[in-house]
Amino acid sequence: MTTHALAEFAVVVASVLLLALPLGTWIARVMEPGVRPLPLARVERAAWRLLRTTPEDDMHWSRYAGHILGLSVAAVLLLYALQRLQGVLPLGAGMPSVPPLLAFNTAVSFVTNTNWQAYAGEATLGLLVPMVGLTVQNFLSAAVGLAVLAALVRGLVRREASGVGNLWVDLVRGTLYVLLPLSFIIALLLAGQGVPQTLRATRTVTLVEPLAGTDTTVSTQTIPLGPVASQVAIKQLGTNGGGYYNANSAHPLENPTPFSNLVQVVSILLIPAALCLAFGRLVRAPRQGWALLTAMVVIYVGSTLPTLAAEQAGTPQLRSAGVELAASPTQPGGNMEGKEVRFGIAGSAIWATATTAASNGSVNAMHDSFTPLGGLFPMWLMQLGEVVFGGVGSGLYGMLVFALLAVFLAGLMVGRTPEYLGKKVEARDIKLAALVVLIPSAWVLLGTAVSLHVQGGRAGIFNAGPHGFSEVLYALSSAANNNGSAFGGLGANSAWYNTVLALAMWMGRFWIIVPVLALAGSFGGKRAVPPGAGTFPTDGPTFVLLLVATVLLVGALTFLPALALGPIVEQMQMIVGGAS
Amino acid sequence: MMARRRTPRDGRAAIAQASLAGLRKLHPRVMMRNPVMCVVWVGAAVTTLLAATGAEGARGFAIAISAWLWLTVWFANFAEALAEGRGRAHADALRSSRVSLEARRLRDPADPLTTERIAASALQKGDVFVVEAGELIAADGEVIDGIASVDESAVTGESAPVIRESGGDRTAVTAGTRVISDWLIVRVTANQGESFLDRMIGLIEAGRRRKTPNEVALEVLLAALSLVFLLAVATLLPFSLWSVESAGRGAPVTLTVLIALLVCLIPTTIGGLLSAIGIAGMDRMIRQNVIATSGRAVEAAGDVDVLLLDKTGTITLGNRQAAAFLPAHGVDVVDLARAASLASAADETPEGRSIVAFAHDRHQVDPAVLPEGAVFIPFTAETRMSGVDMGGRAIRKGAVDAVARATGAALPADVEAASRKVAAVGGTPLVVIDGARVLGVIELKDIVKAGIRDRFDALRRMGIRTVMITGDNPLTAASIAAEAGVDDYLAQATPEDKLRLIREYQAKGHLVAMTGDGTNDAPALAQADVAVAMNSGTPAAKEAGNMIDLDSNPTKLLEVVETGKQMLVTRGALTTFSTANDVAKYFAILPAAFAGTYPSLAALDIMRLASPQSAVLAAVIFNALIIVALVPLALRGVRVRPVGAAQLLRRNLLIYGVGGLVAPFLGIKLIDLALVALRLT
To answer: Of B658, B232, B531, B526, whose CA–CA distance to A449 is shortest?
Structure first.
């Protein structure tokens, strides 16, 4: 690891924390009734009238969950129809309609905030689908995450209450006050760095250096354009990750400069980090929020440093091929395969763990080409359940479920039945929490196991041995945990993977949202135990350590065997192979 | 019976009995009750089949694994049986006293002379029987006529007989206790099988015991963890098949190894000991002579954060005692002490005795031997004075106004002032006179029990608030509250006040514990989360409470809370330990399982175990032995220190979390070394 890499990492973490402070305060203020800027407040009220709802219509958790499911099913159908009809609808930029299974996979992917892309953006979609379909879902799926979190927080704060809030009001607030204004700022920053923002679909330019082939010479290039900056802004802020271009943020038009890279990597982590602090304010105990954020930062930093080190160290094979592995003022050194020169080792490794810690999934380098160890941490961060920052809203509600488990596992050791924020954790709550942890893990492991043994699954695996295994494991981990990042090296646009991954995304999203809302309802109905010297402290360093240990243990214990057969053995073989 | 010490021979017999019972519990129907151990049971059965058929080669290894898996199940059953055995021994002792009891039932409750002899077991609720001196009481009941002294030592261990009579607060009698004077007519209040004793026995027998809410929740979590590991292990087979095919070498992982890995990973330590911990917790209650009517109540005791304590008997000794002599102007304090001692020499009331004792302890006045001819003047409601006439002296002590009336003159101003001062802080002033001469004032006051302040301090550190309940006026209450160090007090408390106070605390989310014995305590007892009724209390109070203290000692509430906490801490400690253990087991088994396919995974074998087979076997053996090693801890319970939650958590996390992480690395390595030394691999 170089000093420069550490400095760059420090700048990223510090920027996230500094910006999360005011943003957290802002979110806490706007997610509940209170003072807000008048013009926006007018829009908010107008939106309520349009949706024929008011905050007074407090929903029972089951109704809240029902509306989310209904909304999501409708969104999938609409998105599916849009893609299937692309050929006949306007603004299609001459692209044909998307095939059924791919359209289904993409529809589920964007509605579940996963943004797994089995298609290549510029080669599959025109202007209409990204603008009317995908970008809308980028906002809506993030707003749903925020809403579910808001409901869970209400459950923890309210006492002996039957409702958890109003979904439509929460969606309006999240979109209007949080996602839209932030996206606007980020889009402007990115456009300033040269990211296109236009309604022109393509532009044909003359090449500076014509490309001479055997019988023809290529002297022009057609560059796909579009409203890129605005889509990239919400792709990062909403932890969506679906790129405008197939190469995602590695593409020079999607992420042109080191500064645009910094803006994007910070916006990946920003809202999930700010939500922790907002949570602390909403439960009227800011230290509780800091404890959760600290736990996230600890795991993120702890995963990034070894990734950085592994990528900088390179591999024995690169060394024996004569590659200069040491960093120098003119060369990044290390394993530069699959990385962009303008981001280097540091910019790529920091991004890789940020995008997988948060359930973003956008990439600025190809994770498939990372060293085994460098690829292990991004994969593991997803397998932890996307709770280290995680998705907008979903990361924190996932982390809160882990907090419940941590409290339950060790809380008895203070001699009281476990409680979190004054709410007793009982058998029903544990059942729900267990579901949240179990469902994605089950899909990852079972999905991988089956994919390795059916014809359709095997056909997509491009590499043999542990690396091929990692490719499948990574895809399932990414889908079931709603990350959407791709390892590469897997032919994912096939009937098998389009289906199995779409199911994994759907289950990984809604089989968690429903139990989380049930938890919100369960906690909301409980009495609150006042804190005292005898209550389990959930805001100190001991709890942070305990929470980190619980997240790591559950993740490690579930996935260690699988990881051992993938990246771990690959790393060992690489070392052994390099030595011989 | 209670006080009998366990001898080593008892211990050996108990272990032998538990060993057998552990075998009987291998029946699948019994195993179904415990999901975690049920998985081990199935695993043991499958590996036995594999070993028997030799399906996977390496027969010796398969036999060793299956043997240790059976042992794992048996160890868990043994722990449960041992806990049950200890509890049952106690219950049997109580029960044996009434096996062959007979009762003289009244055919007609109105006619106490016509009785019929029937077996105690035939008595039904509502029957009325008569019991006389020398007979054992046949069933739990309520005295409806008569007064008698009863020896309850069989139940309470307390040798002093107690008075039981109809009406008032001393009407309850317990089966198996002996009437030693007079007679009683008793109405049976519980059917056979429903008495407190029967309920208690139900709490310590695994088959009949209802799991407590937290136990159920923990079991859900353990089952979920088992499911996660089942997934992780089951998918290893297809992963391994693919890896073998792709790498082109080695053999797929065997079922035996997978089952061994699964059993090592699922939380068998806590899963195997969970039931024993619960039973042992009940047993600890019983050994303190507290009978809980449900496990839920014992668990709630750990959560209690407000204790309502009756002043008398809990915080203060039962009676007021001499605390100071305040001489009148010109009187030597020793003279006052001597006169006070003389006036009380024949006074057998606790107050009187305390005056004699205090004069001796503080002023070295020897207890007077009254001379021949001295006449003791007892206290009467009319004179409200007592004392002694001797050698022409008339020494008296009495209430201030009574003495003033007797002397026929106003008391000296300084004596008057001293009396007022004593009364102002809640004490009782007694004036001592010798003839017409006023000698001074004796201050009687409530004496706070020794050491009670420290206990309240300890409770406060644990986050438990103590509230003193007293019928005294606010002034007296405040002074005693300050002296005892309680957090709050309720003065001039009526039963309604008590009930209201409990509701107020509960509305704020607190869990409240209290003790009570009178019928008018019943509503408050029913409202409190943990309600300990005194065994000497009325049936109404006992019915309303969820625990009964056979010793009728209100201070016991503090122990009840500690026992509840201890049970929860033990459960938490073993859960944490069990989960932390898994890390080392992975490091032992994973490299071993894939040694053939991916030899380079040997780098993960940081324990440098002898061979793949010895690695797997060592992990399985460690997993089984750790259950046995932790049985004493499960039965004894983790000690609960009177410190705040944060400190307790840090300490226990260090011991059971970090300890649980490290211990198996050492244990597995040692077992591996032993296996090699014994040439077993």
So the answer is: B232
Q: What is the pLDDT of residue A257?
A: 94
Nearest CA among B616, B597, B603 for reference residue B668? B616
Give pTM, 2 decimals: 0.86
Query: Which chain A positions have a beta carbon within 8 Å of B217's beta carbon?
Result: 408, 425-427, 429-430
Nearest chain B residue to A535 by CA: give it.
Answer: B645
ipTM value of the model?
0.89
* Secondary structure string (H, E, C) spanning A298-335: HHHHHHHHHHHHHHHHCCHHHHHCCCCCCCCCCCCCCC
* Average pLDDT of the residues in A464-477: 90
Residues of chain A in contact with residue B509, where contact means CB-CB under 8 angstroms, are 422, 527-530
Q: Is B542 a residue whose pLDDT tops 50?
A: yes
Find the closest chain A residue to B578 by CA distance.
Answer: A409
What's the pLDDT score for residue A103? Answer: 93
- Which chain B residue has the Cα nearest residue A429? B217
Tens digit of pLDDT for each residue in B443-498?
A: 988 888 878 888 888 888 888 899 998 877 788 788 888 888 899 999 888 888 88
CA atoms within 13 A on the CB side of B186: 36
Separation in Å, CA of B656 to nearest CA in chain A:
9
pLDDT tens column, B336-367: 898 888 888 877 777 888 888 888 888 888 87
**Nearest-CA neighbor of B259 among B34, B22, B575, B45?**
B45
Chains A–B, number of C-beta pairs less than 8 Å apart? 221
Write the DSSP symbol of residue A131.
I
* Pairing verdict, β B178-188 and B162-165: unpaired
Q: Which of A237, A125, A118, A235 is nearest to A475 (CA)?
A: A118
| pLDDT category of residue B49 using cuts at 50, 70 and 90 | very high
Q: Which residues of A touch B656 (CB under 8 A)?
A: 413
**Alpha carbons A275 and B256: distance in angstroms, whole number:** 47
